[in-house]
Amino acid sequence: MSDAARPAALSGAARLAPLYAAQALATGATTVSTVLASLIMSGLGSEALAGLPSTLIQAAAATSAGLFGALMLRRGRRAGLSLAFALGTMGSLVGFLGARAGVTPLFLTGAMLMGAAQGGYQQARYAAAESVPEARRGTALGALMLMSVLGSFVMTGFSHPIERLGAALGATPEVTGWLVGGALLGVAALLILSWQPLTGPAVAKRERLPLAAAFRIPGVKSTALAVATAQGLMVTLMSLTPLRAHHMGMDHAQVAALISGHILGMFGFGWLTGPLIDRLGLRFGYVSGALLLAAAALTAPLTGQAWLAVSMFLLGLGWNLAFVAGSKALTRFPAAQGVTDALGYVAAGLGTLLGGAVIARAGFPALAITCAVLAALPLVSAWRARPTQP
């Protein structure tokens, strides 16, 4: 790197630091709250509806993603992300109060507010990718993933302090996680106010692309298919596997370790997967992601806690590859980003709702086999992707 380029790179890294830190805190908030929402719902006396909180979260995110996408096109990334983090703070607090008091409708209201917030702050990945040249956008997305795993691991490492805090408040660790998540999202909202997003004529020109025109461009629909499939399968199995672990006799610390392995797969290898997608192309991300998602689904019902841990790790890594590839492709079409994210949330919401019913009627193995079959869909995206597409 030349002497002239080095200060520019440092300046770019400094500009992205608040964005990356805020996203790390948001991932930590999700880890200690919404990931274990199925256990809270079970504790409230409705195990058959254990997937309902996640379904509502995904439905609210699907509704808000397009709205936040449009807001960010008009008012900028910082305005949209600040509002999303603030909304998440409020949702976490409402969810905590509802779960602690045993008022199911209030807890579900908090879950919906959290989902609406996620529909906005998950679009931070586009802001990160926009800040670098196109050939390095996979790397920028991978770096964001790596920062996210730090936030998650800090929170899972604090499982015992969270247990003690819950005991002091008269609440379970899962319920207390919602209070902790609200605090993290509040700090993220403050951090994002200090972030200076990239602006310029080139970005503004792309943002004026009409939505209908964006979806007529070759590759956009198939990209949306890969992103929605990866998001739907990952959230479905991630949300319902903790309930299976609970039935296997795993305690809170063991479930937290299981989630840590999943988060490691999702975010911990961003330093590798992002540059690989930059180098080998979108097809590599779609094909490898599909294969790993299928492997995760097929290993989930095997006997033994070790297989469950392997499944959760593969689930996260498969999602990473397909999702980073799809997100990189979507940075070319800002008008399609919000609605594509919405499709992913719809898939996740339907997956968790129907998945809970499938488990209740046919068992967890039936859900796993269904997910393995659906994991082949990103292969269609790989087939449709242009061979020369970076």
CATH topology of the largest domain: Growth Hormone, Chain: A
CATH superfamily of the largest domain: MFS general substrate transporter like domains
Could you say what the CATH architecture of the largest domain is?
A: Up-down Bundle
- Percentage of β-strand residues: under 5%
How many structural units, i.e. domains?
Answer: 2
Give me the secondary-structure category. Answer: mainly alpha
Topology, number of strands: 0
Helical proportion? over 70%
Order of helices and strands: HHHHHHHHHHHHHHHHHHH
Average predicted local confidence, pLDDT: 83
Number of alpha- plus pi-helical segments = 19
Low-confidence blocks of residues: 1-11, 200-208
Radius of gyration: 20 Å
Shape: globular
The first-level CATH class name of the largest domain: Mainly Alpha
Profile the largest sheet: none
Ends apart, CA distance between termini: 22 Å
Short description:
It contains 19 helices and no strands. The chain folds into 2 domains: 187 residues, MFS general substrate transporter like domains (Growth Hormone, Chain: A), CATH 1.20.1250.20; 181 residues, MFS general substrate transporter like domains (Growth Hormone, Chain: A, Up-down Bundle), CATH 1.20.1250.20.
Give an account of the 3D structure.
This protein is an all-alpha fold. The chain has two domains: 187 residues, MFS general substrate transporter like domains (Growth Hormone, Chain: A); 181 residues, Growth Hormone, Chain: A (Up-down Bundle). 83% of the residues lie in helices and 0% in strands. It starts with a helix and ends in a 6-residue tail after the last helix.
